[in-house]
Structures are given as C-alpha cells and as structure tokens.
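Subject: Sanity check before I submit

Could someone independently write out the structure tokens for this chain? I want to compare against mine line by line before I put it in a report. The sequence has 270 residues.
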Amino acid sequence: MQNISQGTTQDNLSVEKLLSFEFFTPPLDTQFKIAAILSAYDDLIENNTRRIKILEDMAATIYRQWFVEFRFPGHENVLMVESELGSIPQGWEVVKTEQITIRVASGKKFNQKTVNHAGSVPVLDQGRSGIIGYHDDAPGVTASEDDPIIVFANHTCYQRIIQFPFSAIQNVLPFLPNPDQYRSIYWLHWATKDLVDLNDYKGHWPEFMSKELFLPPTSICERFGEHVKPMVQLAHSLDKQNQNLRQSRDLLLPKLISGEIDVSELDIDT
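---
Independent answer below. Compare away.
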C-alpha cells in the first residue's frame, strides 16, 4: 500500500487501488478458528481489565468511608471538632499538599522522538495510556512493588502509583510522602488524587500544591495502606499479564493470518 500510494504533493490511496489488492484468504472454517484463538486473548485481557477496575473501586470505596465519611475503625470513640474545612475528627489536621509531599527528580527527560518501540525501561507520558515508548539506558526513577512512587501529570492532572523502574517525558512529576509529615503512600495517593481538575492545558502543579486536605493520624493511614497495598499489587500484576497477552496476541496475529501457523486441522470450538 505504501509503495503505490505516493503522490506528488501528498500520499493518496484511491478506492480503486484499494479494491484491486489481492491477498491470501483462508477457508471460512479456518478464519473462525483464527478468530477463536485471538478472541481468547481478548477475553482474558477484558476480564483482567474488569478485575483491575473492581480493585481500584474497592480501594476508593474504603478511602471514602474512612476519610470522607469518617467511618474509620474506632470512629465511634472519637469526638468531632470544627476546622476551617468543617467538622473533622479530633486529632486530625488541615494541611496543604505541599506540606505532606516531596518531589522526586525524574532524571533525563524523553519525548516521542527519543524513545523506541521496545526496550527495558518504559517512558511514562501524561495520558491514561501511560507509556509513550521505551529505552535501554538506566531508568530515571527506581520504583518497585515494595517501594512504589506516585506520578502526577502536570498538564492532564492524571495521577497513578508506579511500581516499576521508569523514565518520563517533560511534566510527568514523581513525588513521595514528606518524611517530616510521613503517611502511607497509599493513603497519600487517594488523598491527593483528583484534588485538581483539568481546566486548561497548563501547568497544574502549583495549584495542586496549594490544595488543602485533612491529615489523619499516622496509625489510621498505615492501617489503610495495609488494606489497600495487596489490591494495588494485584492490579499491577493483572496489568503486567495484559501487557504480555497483548504482545503474544500481536505476535500471533500475522503468523495466523499468513498461514505460517496452520490451525486448519486443530479441533477448536468456534
């Protein structure tokens, strides 16, 4: 298609040219078998995606019950007091985001032109798709399941917990709990997530840092982290499974379509 679509000013592939292509078409029953194999991968990916969403919703629900509705363990024995943000449990404080977070340097910045399609180190972008490409140098940020880190997208306000070594493009800003006001990183993520809404394609970090929120006692935040950590780790594991499933499916696809892998004699329920 690329070879015959080149024009004098811009590439063009007419309908007439498109309809003139000849290509290999396996018998219909083989097509159904190919579709069944590929659909099995898609079904697994969809199932994992649903499970990830359920885990995220569970964590968000626990956060809302404990820290928004104040129905945390032992809340029956805690008095409510007034604050500048309304009534809060005794012993809680009102703080700004900048008091409880600390920025982490992300090392060398990458962009669309400096990443590869494959590599050992993923490069994070600002969208929900998450990864813009890869490289094989040292990662800009070291993270793991035991030592995760939060990243905030300065322009899109998208925020997530990262559990693997990575590099980043400009305006992907990693941060951790401030040691001087340390709280569980899992509590910090849900406490600061969605504090700022995307209202323009601009830098939102200063606004994010100036937001006020409730700061509960350390013990409650740590207990929340103990509940949520397994959910976050399982969601990460399912996401890795999906990446592997997509790679396997995409490797199989051309081999099945071309007939390099012959499935015509396989007993497959279609």
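---
OP: Matches mine. For the report I'm noting this point. The mean pLDDT is 92.
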